[in-house]
Amino acid sequence: MESPLHHFELHPIIHLSIGGLDLSINKAVIAMWIGMAIVFGLFMLVVRGGLSMVPGKIQSIAEISLEFIKGMVKEFIGDEGMKYFNFVGSLFFFMVCCNLIGLIPGSYTITSQLVVTGAFAICIFIMTLVIGFSKHGGHFFSILVPPGVPKLMIPFMVPIEVISMIARPISLSVRLFANMTAGHTVLAVLFGLAMSAPVWLGWLPFGFTVIINGLEMAIALIQAYIFTTLTCVYIGDVIKLH
User: Fold this and answer.
1) Residue-wise over 50-79: b if at least 16 C-beta within 10 A, else e?
2) Torsion of CA 34, 126, 218, 77, to 10 degrees
3) pLDDT recorded at residue 53
4) How many distinct structural domains can be found in the chain?
5) What does each C-alpha distance from 21 to 12, 14, 25, 99, 144 come to in angstroms?
6) What range does the domain containing 48 cover?
7) Is the Cβ–Cβ distance between 101 and 31 less than 8 Å?
8) From CA 234, how far away is CA 237, in angstroms rounded?
9) Is-contact 106 86, C-beta < 8 A?
10) Is 1 within the bounds of a domain?
């Protein structure tokens, strides 16, 4: 039986190098392109189909999804956060598509790569710093001093708050990466057991794969929601200085 981590290995499909930089196309790149194409295609389908007062099935799903994202933005960022609605919505739908694409046999889960989730988390972290400094200037450093803290405690609290802020992109990336990797590893192990076990016993691990696959679909949605929610929380913190 192959190693359950074999699924996460990446091998170039199309070798491409520009100026010594390896830009080879692999399954992860293709999965990312497919995710982007699905999100773009679904919303283009809604727009091209025309928006009606009595929405059809596709328009209803799009409107409910966007209202859900809008409620998330207003709850965690506030009315001022609507300027970030497009970014938050794109992030959520892209994460959902990429997580679900990984459940298709033969495809690849790009969110199971720490370098991918880490890149997203670092970009979001840098974006929050830019938002904070552009809105508050030097006063943004007051986010390192929680309200009501005695002056005597400030020298101790500032390092703690700095570590807390630095830990945000780490926890944001590791949480998504760990959940996607763990779930797919369990599925790979169970599929391997089902294939290697005798016929009369193979139905047992195969039955578990069906159950866990359904669970993984729910986890894919939940993890996209958590990632997007924390993004909204971090943006809201730098805007409100909480």
Assistant:
1) eeeeeeeeebeebeebbeebeebbeebbee
2) -120
3) 63
4) 1
5) 14, 14, 12, 28, 39
6) 6-240
7) yes
8) 5
9) no
10) no
Alpha-helix residue ranges (DSSP H) falling in the chain? 27-49, 57-76, 85-101, 114-136, 154-196, 199-240
Residue 130 predicted with pLDDT over 80: yes
Q: Given the structure tokens 């192990």, which residue do they identify?
A: 189
**200 within some domain:** yes
Other CB atoms within 10 Å distance of the CB of residue 117: 26
DSSP state of 146: -
The tokens for 153 are 């405690």
- Structural tokens at position 37: 């194409």
CA-to-CA dists, residue 112 to 100, 172, 189, 212, 227, angstroms:
12, 13, 16, 17, 14
Structure tokens at 6: 């074999």
Q: How far apart are CA 96 and CA 38, in angstroms?
A: 11
Read off the DSSP letter of residue 21: E
pLDDT in tens, 73-105: 988 888 888 888 889 988 998 888 888 888 887
**Contact (CB, 8 A) for 164 and 146:** no
Q: Is the pLDDT of residue 217 over 80?
A: yes
User: Among residues 86, 92, 94, 89, which one has the least CA distance to residue 38?
Assistant: 94
Q: For residue 238, with 0-12 CB atoms within 10 Å meaning exposed, 13-18 middle and 19 or more buried, which class applies?
A: buried
Residue 25 phi, psi dihedral angles, 5° rounding: -90, 125
